Amino acid sequence: MSASNFNPIWEDSIYGTGNHLNKYPFDNVVTFIFRNFPRNKPRNEIKILEIGSGAGNNLWFAAREGFSVTGIDGSKSAIDFAKKRFEEEGLKGEFLVGDFTNLPLKDDSFDIVIDRGSIVCVGLEAGKKAIQEAHRTLVKGGLFFFNPYSQAHTSFSSGTLQKNGQVTDIEHGMLVGVGAISLYSHRDILDALPCEKWNIKTLKHKEVKEIGIYQTVHAEWEVITQKI
Predict the structure, then answer these.
(1) Ramachandran bin of 215, using left for φ above 0, alpha for ψ from -120 to 50, beta for the remaining angles
(2) What does pTM read for this prediction?
(3) How many domains does one find in the chain?
(4) Is pLDDT above 90 for 51?
(5) 114 - beta bridge partners?
(6) Which domain holds residue 190?
């Protein structure tokens, strides 16, 4: 990813040091794929792209289920981990180090694009560019799963909001230590998914509250939207 967009903390302090190299998929990604993959063609012809694919844990699941998968991430360590795992397990997949705001991929080439908490790692305008790239690479009628954090999250109010929409110096909540993060309002979601390009199928807001000493809130959006 370009220096202007990729936060080096993910390479230098997280993936590069062996942290967050998740092995198993997120349950909401599993649910989304199984409920929404096209039923009119074989699985090996259904192409899934994950932007900000990290260690490839979501695509590992998808590849095991027979889908054709591609992942892109700004961290070389994460991509190397995913490639090695796929090779060791005999799975097929393409993994690229690159910028998800400027995808090195063809127009109209994927049935599904997934973002699970990755676009939040750039500012709101850069996030719009990433979503525009997701739109460009999707086939007409293809689906985009957009899963950003919400401003109802404890980490939003415990940091410093910058002009680009990112929150820095987060002191509380589950997002401590991951650098600058954009947390989305309902208006931000709608601005990023203009109705002339996208048909929003579902828009959910989820909150998990920890009851106890810390009383933190983890809040996120789950959006399924279709390319018009």
Answers:
(1) left
(2) 0.94
(3) 1
(4) yes
(5) 50, 145
(6) 9-148+184-207+220-227
